[in-house]
Each structure stands twice: as C-alpha cells, then as structure tokens.
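fyi for ur records
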Amino acid sequence: MTSDWQARVDAVWAASGELGDDEVVRRIDALAAERPSDDPLALFERAGARDSAGLEAEAEGLYREALARGLGGSERVQAHIQLASTMRNLGRSLEAVELLDVIEPDSGDLRDAVVAFRALALVDAGEARRAASEALAALAPHLPRYRVSLAAYAADLVASA
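which gave:
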C-alpha cells in the first residue's frame, strides 16, 4: 500500500504547478485520509502541502507531529529542513538554525540542503559571513577546480570577522 500511496502523492506533487495551492492541499489531505490519522508520513505530506501553499503556521504543527510520531528515513531529514524553512519564514531564524544543527549529522545525501537552509536562516539572523562561509565550504568539494582555495576562503570569512 505504501508504494502505491506514495506514487499517488508524488503524482499530486508532480502536477502541483497546474493544480494550484488549494487543490494540492485538498488532494494531499484526501490521500492522507486513507491512512491512520497519526501516520507520520501522512502528517508530513499534509504539512508539506500547507507549507507549499504559504500556510506556514498550519504546516509547523503538522511537521512537529510527524516528527513526534516517528517519521523516519529521508522524510525525517526533509521534515527538519522544511520545518526549519517554515520557522525562518515565520521570523524564527535562530530556532531554524538550531533545528538544522540537530539533524545535520544524520542528513546523509541531504547534507548540502541542510547547509543551504541553515545559511538562509543565518543570513536572517544577521550572520551573513558565517552563512557564506558554511555555504561555500559545502560547495567546495563539488568543484572540479579551486576546491582547496575556496575552502580556505570560506574559513577566512569567519576567521577574519
């Protein structure tokens, strides 16, 4: 059931540009209703639909409930990233940084996304040099050239501040 259900959720997200925010929320809610009301994956999808629709205050509670109910795997990391982004949009950038700091060691292939969203929150918190340093340090290993020099410049940004 989960793979078929997830495929239907993914189809809603794939069509989201044509559906509009209200319809995405409606369809995701309908799919979530097929699962138990405390299902962490369904809660996560409901949160994401609201977040995408600009309903951050509604999304926050659903993200928190999904995490509290044991959301696991990649979705757990995604929920932390999306919740942190929501918190930043709600003007709570330092809380967003703290949330991303907690998840970063477990973020796996989403590590760079964690760093990127933390950089956005750091900018909003008035720490632009630290944000740039962390973002550049995360970018450096992906470059075919200039890795060492970019990593050094990234470190210098916070050392010289």
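Residues 1-71 form a domain with the Serine Threonine Protein Phosphatase 5, Tetratricopeptide repeat fold (CATH 1.25.40). thats all i got for now
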